[in-house]
Design goal:
Layout (H helix, E strand, L loop, with lengths): L2 H15 L3 H11 L4 H24 L18 E2 L2 E10 L2 E8 L4 E7 L8 H15 L11 E4 L5 E6 L3 E3 H5 L6 H20 L12 E4 L4 E3 L4 H5 L10 H4 L4 H4 L7 H16 L9 H10 L12 H10 L11 H24 L15 H15 L3 H11 L3 H9 L5 H17 L22 H15 L3 H11 L3 H9 L5 H15 L2
Antiparallel strand pairs: 1-2, 2-3, 3-4, 4-6, 5-6, 7-8, 8-9
Length: 514
């Protein structure tokens, strides 16, 4: 057979792979018209490929959570003292509903677990033990477990907090994150994992789908304790390609898993945040496994990201776990050092007044004073406090506005009151209060002036839909037009869903007329 024949065979085979299996024979017959030998060769290769794919899928089927029924509950159904509001997620690890807790009068999330995780008494006991261990984790970046229960039919479910926001997986469908935002998410996940590892709990299934970005810009790790009970490895049930792509090599080989598996998975997740692409992909499980075990994806993006972040990626994504970070705290420390250097550069730039015309600076805050506020917030919000304080300081034109904005990020009234009292005291003790600068939110020629509070509320309104670019979209819209209705229309058009556009437009118009 000559080279032309092989090239043609390869081209037809590759194109046929993109067609549903039931339609491939007709496509091949048309593409190979008059060449029966070529047609037979292509079909033989396609049959072999399909058989191999089925074999992999049979080794790791996704078991429906209710023994074959994908979602037996609907809006209005009662589960104990919980009333179902809506289904908000479904996957290999179960179905998740938003529900209303009538006893405590709050929204919660109910996660029903796959049938394979509670079909045997031994599995149920292991799950209960792991869930009890995970429920003891008290950290702002870990989704806590409120309760474990089961329906009269024997379906196990977990009661968890309901968070406004979206998963990192949903956010990444809109593209990659800015490097500083990817770093901030990584820091919060690493901080949560450090608390878990300190209690001898390894997550085993860190991936974008298990990371929640809340509406207040926080990060929550989901599904602690579940992955270990599922005994995830290459041949386990409930395991699909979505998990394989983030699985450490030793985990794929069925070896004993320790905290370094979470370090690998967080590195792979950071890669995806920076590039917008899955680090290891393929048409089937076999290709994903081969990519994880052989490809050096971190090296492939060395020219696309800051060297410091590339160094973290390279160390976290070492296939030999002995060459990775020894523990998650070491990775966290490197991330915090990078974030601190970015913060220093930002402060120096501002104090030198090298500001672009689009920067909305309301107050020339003293870095030392902001450091004091960061120290007050860190015990509650963790390392992300630095970024949160710097972001809110950009929009606040006095102490009261900054205090109010930061209080909105805290979890309860007691914590808010305590923080406000301490912050006001520190402000009173500060002998060099920063000088006030006028708020410059728009081009003077367009005659649209908004207060820092309005800007912050607009950003919070758009954030669940468009993510971290909300602030940039708002500045651009204000620079484009001085008419409030036009600005609302421009911002609403950044959303794809018509219903969401209408809701967002009404909220934004209300904010701008306050």
């Amino acid at each position: 057979m000559d080279e032309t024949y092989w090239q043609k065979l390869q081209a037809i085979f590759d194109e046929a792979l993109g067609i549903p299996p039931a339609q491939r024979a007709a496509f091949v017959a048309h593409a190979c018209a008059g060449e029966p030998r070529l047609s037979d060769e292509v079909m033989s290769l396609l049959d072999a490929h399909l058989a191999a794919t089925k074999k992999w899928n049979q080794q790791s089927p996704v078991v429906p959570p209710f023994g074959g029924i994908s979602s037996p509950y609907k809006t209005g159904d009662d589960i104990g003292h919980h009333r179902i509001i809506d289904q908000i997620g479904v996957g290999g690890m179960g179905v998740v509903y938003q529900a209303f807790d009538s006893r405590l009068e709050r929204d919660v999330a109910l996660k029903f677990l796959p049938a394979n995780m509670h079909s045997k008494a031994e599995s149920r006991q292991r799950f209960m033990a792991e869930a009890r261990a995970a429920s003891r984790l008290d950290h702002p970046n870990i989704c806590v477990i409120h309760d474990i229960n089961e329906t009269p039919e024997g379906h196990l479910y977990i009661t968890m907090p309901y968070y406004q926001g979206e998963t990192l997986a949903a956010r990444l469908k809109r593209g990659c994150l800015q490097s500083h935002d990817a770093l901030a998410v990584t820091i919060q996940v690493a901080d949560g994992l450090a608390a878990a590892h300190a209690n001898d709990i390894v997550h085993r299934d860190i991936k974008p789908a298990n990371i929640m970005l809340t509406q207040d810009r926080g990060v929550k790790i989901l599904d602690f304790g579940i992955a270990k009970v599922a005994n995830i490895h290459l041949t386990s049930t409930g395991m699909g390609i979505g998990t394989l792509a983030y699985m450490a090599p030793e985990q794929m080989r069925g070896q004993e898993v320790d905290a370094r598996a979470d370090i690998w998975a967080l590195g792979v997740t950071l890669y995806e945040m920076l590039t917008g692409k899955t680090a290891f992909d393929g048409d089937g499980a076999s290709q994903v496994v081969e990519a994880v075990l052989t490809d050096d994806r971190a090296a492939s993006i060395s020219d696309c990201i800051p060297p410091a972040l590339h160094s973290i990626l390279s160390k976290a994504m070492q296939r030999n776990r002995n060459a990775r970070y020894a523990d998650i705290k070491s990775m966290l420390e490197d991330c915090l050092q990078i974030q601190a250097s970015q913060g220093t550069n930002l402060q120096v730039t501002r104090r030198a007044n090298h500001l672009t015309k689009n920067d909305n600076i309301a107050f020339e805050w003293e870095p030392a004073f902001l450091d004091i506020i960061i120290a007050l917030l860190t015990p509650t919000l963790g390392p992300i406090s630095t970024k949160l304080v710097q972001r809110q300081a950009r929009h606040a034109s006095n102490i009261d506005q900054l205090c109010s904005a930061l209080c909105d990020l805290l979890p309860d009234d007691i914590t808010k009151r305590s923080f406000a009292e301490k912050m006001k005291l520190k402000a009173a003790m500060n002998t060099t209060p920063p000088a006030v600068n006028p708020v410059n939110v728009s081009n003077p020629s367009n005659h649209l002036e908004l207060t820092p509070v309005q800007l912050a509320k607009l950003e919070s309104c758009l954030l669940p839909y468009v993510g971290p670019i909300a602030g940039s979209l708002i500045r651009r819209a204000i620079a484009t037009s001085g008419d409030r209705d036009v600005v609302c229309q421009i911002l609403a058009e950044s959303l794809t869903n018509p219903a969401e556009q209408l809701t967002a437009r009404q909220k934004m118009k209300s904010i701008m007329t306050e």
